[in-house]
Amino acid sequence: MLINMGRIFKSLTGRHSDLPALMNLERGRIFSHREMHLLSNRISNLLTGRFELTGGDFYATILDNDNMGLFHPWMFKCPAGAVWIDIRESLPERLNQLDHAGPRVVFLESRLAEEMYEPLTRRGLAVIAMDPLKKPLPGVHDFRDLTSAASPEEVRAELDLEDSSKHIALLRFTGGTTGRAKCAAYSLSNLWTWGLNPAHYTETFPYPNPRALLFSPLNHAASGSVVIPALVRGGMIATLNRADPELLGKTIAAKKIQMIYAVPTVLYRMLELKLHQRFDLTSLKTIRYGGASIAPAKLESLLAIFGPVFVQGYGSTECWPSVTILGRGEHRTDRPEWIGRLASVGRPFPGQEVLICGDQGEELPPGQEGEILIRGINTIQGYYQDPARTGANFTADGFWKSGDIGRFDQEGYLFLVDRKKDMIISGGYNIYATEVENCLNAHPAVRDSAVVGLPDEYWGEAVCAVVVLNEGRTTTADELKAHCKKLMASYKAPKRIEITESLPLSPAGKVLRRKVRDWVRGV
Length: 523
Fold this sequence. Notes:
By secondary structure, the chain is an alpha/beta fold.
């Protein structure tokens, strides 16, 4: 099936023409829906005209949130596919990803031009700097000069909607928190069709013209996923380039922001700093969270402050981006069974298949733990130019093997137990790091924690925890061990606890367990 995304965006623009679509807070600039449509026409025509990109070619973006907002999702109209490189990756990782994806043009933040100029030009890539360079570099183009000269004529490309072997709309790399990143290849349907799922409009945006604030990377699946439904609803995406709690509080209050997306670590920090007491956050109608497990005890505290405005999603790079949803009406604390469900990630989105499977691939009934397998319109067909890892991670009938361990309850709520590779086997017992982290995070002195297993001659693996304390609070490793032994089986309690000032996080805010493990080994 073919689709003309230029025509789709033109139709949407007609509904919301002069309403704000994008606000870049650090830059103090704002674009209407009509302005964004015309600008993205210019960018697309620039790529297919001056740079002669066609179907099967790629351009890359290495951008902060403000400039990334100029591309997502408006550039899905372009016949050339996008490669979203996370700007917070190291230079070697950025170059590795560019080499794998093979784009012909790179849109680059100007502050990175000097650092990346030589390796990019050596690879024969055309470089477009988003702002004028302080020191001109031969062959580097200026974004504003190019787009001003490009045609705003409508983009009329007929693109395959569903088959990524015929048209790849986007290449994105997995977060790489557990190893070498994989390159996910998305069809338009993986992105656009999923953005039209009704659950987005009944749960995340059940109100018109939403004002959403995004501060985690816009090219991350979880935060980036809310862009499509927000714009379809006639809303505005406000961007910040960093998750600074003070700045968040000021921005929400000043701009009357109605929706934010945050990973749990940001929510924990908001609690610790008591932002709700220092800034007027009453405009918030939705707090969408995900990206990592949240401690149920901390979620109860957040609910007591903000009320039933929370919506959770569980998903992955391979399933853009949400597989399940725990809606605002399901975030309740008035009955024990509802409190228990706060530890779940909700129920499958409409149209989503989620299975719990045993080691032989057999489907397991509610109550039994197994690997989570996922299939839906948002599930990619495989990894770009990586048949070995595609074969290892996808079943023949299109299910993605998540590597997560979970179980369903009788009402269909999905509970994550842990990552397969994060399971610790200590003294012959299976111990899930997430369970221990939730226990530690329930202690009033603890802001966040990460649990890993380290080789141990006696236990096989020993449970080790690294803990970050709330500002102004004190505790000891022995006190935390005793706390865990009161709330869970003693064999699950950490054998060793280190207290530190911060945890290593990925650009998306996820704890990098491999770095935690390396750090603990070196202490």
